[in-house]
Write a structure and sequence with these properties.
mainly alpha; minor pseudopilin epsh fold; three-stranded antiparallel beta sheet; single chain; Helix Hairpins; globular; 3 strands; 2 domains
C-alpha cells in the first residue's frame, strides 16, 4: 500500500511563494486522494506487487485509466515536493548548469522554455525537465501524464493544475511559474537526478 510522503519542510516554509493553505490542500488533500484511490484500485490485483513506475507503465499500456491517473499523479507529486525547498531558486549547481548550457544554450533559454511549456499547457497538467537518452528536454503533459511513459527520466516537474496555484495567484499562471523557477526550485536535488 502506498502512503503520503512526509515533506522535507513545514507547510509554512514555502510561503509566500506557495502559501501554507495551498500546501495543506495540495499535499494533505489532493495528493492523499490520489494515493487512497490508487490503493483502492490495485487492492487484490496483479498491480499490487509492482513498483510505482511499473504500475504507471503497465496501466498506461493496458489503458487502465483509473490506475494510471492516480499512480502517475502520486509519482508526479513525489517528485514535485522534492523539487522545491525554502529559499530555493538562485544559482544552478555547476554540473547541472553545464548540462543545461550544452543542451539549451543558456540557463536563461532553458528558463524561458520551461516557463513557456507550463503556460502553454492548456488546462490541467505539468511541465517537465527530463533526460531523453543523454539529452535534457523540456516538455509539457496533460492531466496526470508523465514522461516515464515516453521513455524519458523526469528530473524536474512543475504542477500546473489550478489547485497548485489558484489560491495564491488566481488566474496568473505565468507569475506562479516564474516564482516557482526563481524562488522555489531545489537545484541540488534536481542535479542529483542527472
Amino acid at each position: 500500500m502506498f502512503e503520503l510522503p512526509k515533506l522535507n519542510y513545514p507547510n509554512s516554509a514555502l510561503s509566500p511563494i506557495m502559501s501554507e493553505q495551498t500546501l495543506d490542500l495540495h499535499h494533505g488533500k489532493h495528493h492523499q486522494t490520489y494515493i487512497t484511490n490508487l490503493n483502492n484500485f490495485i487492492k487484490g490485483s496483479e498491480y499490487e506487487k509492482l513498483t510505482l513506475e511499473d504500475i504507471i507503465k503497465k496501466s498506461s499500456t493496458e489503458k487502465k485509466l483509473g490506475i494510471f491517473n492516480n499512480a502517475s499523479q502520486h509519482w508526479n507529486h513525489n517528485l514535485f515536493w522534492r523539487c522545491m525547498k525554502p529559499n530555493g531558486g538562485g544559482n544552478v549547481p555547476s554540473k547541472l548548469e553545464n548540462k543545461i548550457k550544452q543542451d539549451f544554450g543558456s540557463v536563461k533559454k532553458f528558463r524561458e522554455e520551461f516557463i513557456n511549456a507550463g503556460i502553454a499547457q492548456f488546462g490541467s497538467g505539468w511541465c517537465w525537465l527530463s533526460l531523453k537518452e543523454d539529452k535534457l528536454v523540456v516538455t509539457k503533459s496533460p492531466n496526470a501524464e508523465n514522461p516515464i511513459i515516453h521513455n524519458m527520466k523526469p528530473i524536474l516537474g512543475c504542477d500546473v493544475w489550478e489547485h497548485s496555484y489558484y489560491l495564491d495567484y488566481k488566474n496568473k499562471r505565468p507569475v506562479y511559474l516564474e516564482n516557482f523557477f526563481d524562488k522555489l526550485i531545489n537545484w541540488e536535488f534536481v542535479e542529483s537526478l542527472l
